[in-house]
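testing teh design pipeline on a random one, pls ignore if ur not involved
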């Protein structure tokens, strides 16, 4: 029944798996997904800014400031999750949305992750927000991320001067023979 509490909208978790949405036809679902992504992006930008100041504090030997900043960075996440929850409740009555909307929210969110540079962290943020809205009986892959939806293995960095985090070097056969024969003698 519309307007019924989210916890009561589907009593049996198996009922929620009855049908995968064939269409993403809810603009509310997209708006919720976008608001969640905006919440994560805000968190990540503020976290990076705060972390960037660590070098200055280190160089100035501001150890007390460094400890305060570390404490604040730890609290950033919970604060951003609470901000996102407040927005979702105020703008979309998130706790009253039916399960089919929440399935679409996740699918829209996956679409927003495609070109994102931190999809794994964004998925964790999604789970943190969603698990505070949904009843624990909905903690399965239809509504939260149990497995990564987007691979981080091939994420390209758009910066021209970007270098890979690591390089793999493979010796050629002549190098191997030369080194191994020197080792054996």
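output:
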């Amino acid at each position: 029944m519309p307007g019924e509490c989210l916890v009561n909208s589907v009593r049996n978790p198996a009922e929620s798996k009855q049908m995968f949405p064939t269409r993403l036809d809810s603009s509310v679902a997209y708006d919720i997904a976008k608001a969640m992504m905006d919440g994560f992006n805000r968190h990540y930008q503020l976290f990076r800014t705060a972390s960037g100041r660590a070098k200055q504090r280190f160089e100035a030997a501001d150890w007390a400031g460094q400890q305060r900043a570390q404490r604040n960075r730890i609290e950033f996440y919970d604060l951003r999750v609470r901000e996102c929850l407040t927005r979702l409740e105020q703008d979309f009555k998130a706790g009253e949305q039916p399960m089919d909307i929440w399935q679409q929210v996740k699918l829209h969110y996956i679409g927003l992750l495609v070109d994102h540079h931190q999809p794994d962290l964004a998925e964790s943020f999604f789970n943190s927000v969603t698990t505070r809205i949904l009843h624990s009986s909905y903690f399965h892959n239809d509504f939260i991320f149990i497995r990564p939806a987007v691979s981080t293995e091939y994420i390209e960095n758009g910066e021209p001067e970007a270098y890979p985090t690591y390089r793999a070097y493979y010796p050629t056969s002549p190098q191997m023979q030369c080194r191994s024969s020197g080792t054996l003698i």
